[in-house]
Amino acid sequence: QATTEPPKKKPDPVTSETVVIWGLRLWQVIGIFAIFVLAVIITLCCIFKCRIPRTKKEIEARYAQRQAAKTYADKLETVPPLNELTEIPGGIS
């Protein structure tokens, strides 16, 4: 059967200028999504302080720094308060 109807029109190809949602073009939606993902990653890195040391030397230096800070904190706890260490001249006993 031959029909006289015109052939169905193919849908327009999807390009970066295609309106996707809420009047935003495809490249705008991708950009907003990328910025959101980047913001989440930066926020998580700031909260959890996930830093990746680059070299073995840097890893060892950070370990030594942590150990020194821990040793210093332990020794600081054993020091008596300043008013017990010194006598203030003319002070009330």
TrEMBL record:
TM segment ranges: 26-48
Q: Which GO terms describe its biological process?
A: inner ear morphogenesis; sensory perception of sound
> What lineage does UniProt assign to this protein's organism?
Eukaryota, Metazoa, Chordata, Craniata, Vertebrata
Q: Which UniProt keywords apply?
A: Membrane, Transmembrane, Transmembrane helix
Top-level division of the source organism's lineage = Eukaryota
One matching Pfam family: TMIE
Q: What is this protein called?
A: TMIE protein
**Gene behind the chain:** Tmie
